[in-house]
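WARN no homologs supplied; continuing
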Amino acid sequence: MHELTLEWQEKGQIKRETIYNQQRSRSPGTVRLGRDPARCDLVLSDPTISGLHVEIFFNTTTHNFALRNLRQSNPPVVNGEQVTHGEISLSQGSIIYLGQAEVKVVAVLLSAPIIPPTMLVPPTPSIQPQHSPEVTYGLECPRCHRTSAYERLDWGCQWCGTSLAAAASVLMTPISNSG
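OK structure emitted
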């Protein structure tokens, strides 16, 4: 799970909130910030903050948290850059101004992608007759379903280029040299 922790001051107290990449929210996939509790997941009371100001989300393409402006007027400022269009990446130490309120990114935790384990089980002697060629295993591409040798694990599928990190281990049909 990925998480981003924000910190700000409100009514003389330091507030801290952690945002998770898969947490429930009013707008699935994002956490919305602003003053309006009916439209926002994280409510800040500063009067210079818009009712619905910004949203923070985990960008699966760039594998980081990002902020998107939801207002044409009163745009946020992130690390000194006004965000009027698109999105901007957030990292530990980022400073966000929503109106006159300063919100700091105090922590970002990005966990490694989960790759399902591959279990290799050699054939039992009763399955492999003495006269058959040696049995070998390969990797079945998760996209094109063709089989590649284990040596291709770091290179990817030789036909479509897909990563073989999550490929299934399969029994390869032996090639006979007899003619």
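The two ends are 55 Å apart (CA to CA).
OK
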